[in-house]
Please model this.
Amino acid sequence: MDQNTDQNISIELQQLFEKQQQAFTENSYPSLEQRRQHLKTLQQLILQNKTEINLAISHDFSNRSHSETEMFEVMTSVLGIKYALKNLKKWMRPSKRHIGILFQPATGYVLYQPVGVVGIVVPWNYPLFLAIGPLCQALAAGNRVILKMSEYTPEFSALFKQLIAQAFPEDLVSVVNGDAEVAQKFTQLPFNHILFTGASEVGKHVMRAAANNLTPVTLELGGKSPALVLADANIRESARRIAFGKAMNAGQTCVAPDYVLIPAQLQAQFIEEYATAIQEFFPKLADNPDYTAIINERQLNRLNHYLEDATAKNATVHVITDASSGRRLAHYVLSNVTDDMQVMQNEIFGPLLPIVTYQQLDEAINYINQRPRPLALYYFGYNKQEQQKVLMQTHSGGVCLNETLVHVGQEDLPFGGVGTSGLGNYHGYEGFVTFSHAKAVFNRPKFSLMRLFYPPYGTFIQKLILKLFIR
Model:
């Protein structure tokens, strides 16, 4: 990118930001009806263009399962908007708070105000859902929004920019497209909040850029989310549910099960049941419309390199499906893995599933805790005491007990990471709060006892108050 182009991009972004900033200044607390109308417009945008959206995403992947897009991007996005519409009046209501006896008579409450102009950086793996979710909650909170779409989904990004421009004025919602240089300039803008979804290393750069403006950030990152199988688990059902979590979007999901921890004596049965499930899901890969491709050659080469590295270091590689076809990568299970393998060091983001065996539950818990805190943890087993032990002694962004992925689709549960898997959360009410400023309001009537605390100090009343309340 030459210097003139670079400068032009910076100017255009700054002008767009200032336009939204000015519009926010003129209407800094949109009414309930205004916000509802924005959400209804967003909902209609999706419903009226879902076929074009589905095709665009599929073209970007070379093949993306249309059913996956319909169920896990279109449907989940619409459900999130409907949930916000249903609950927005309650969310906007000031939250009454207790005022201590020393400060009576008075009332106190929290007023949730829009923060201003919000920047959202959208990844490529679920480009609709991960744009609409935070956009919906930012609009519900009364903000203006600029979205930076991924350059790895160019067809969808162009379509989304067009649809947003048709549905919303530029000073309310706008879309920016471009490469990493544009993303860098984007995160340097003095937003009132930035939400970034993507890789941990990139998230660090976003946080550094935001720090220059003291912009608060929500980082939705990733990590190696374990599936912990206990001795009392139903192995067939556990394998099937883990297979679903790994098969969705060909494993290109930030909360996909990254590896399995299982008692050594159950490993062989698990591999057999997992293979059966995957083969039932996808009897063939070639020309199978249900099987999503890897997004691009770079990601495909990375995954193949992980396989080669694991093979060279003596992992046992189990080929679960028929041979890869183009960017439709076959499913693999890897046993006898070691920590020096890249497949155990990096988030996989593809259809490779390493298996680690353990003897005692404490050993499995220690294994999880010795690694960076994951975005999700999946527990399979029915012993309540063991469930509580794992819940209390491990740290992860979220947990599913005897299921995978579906906690992300619950609008009444916050979604977010912890440690290297993320910072902050959103979805539903938590999303509304994330994109709001919680303003504390203390309301005093005409009469006030505060004069008892005025100087000169050391009065009898002050001494009595101190004696009563400091013991």
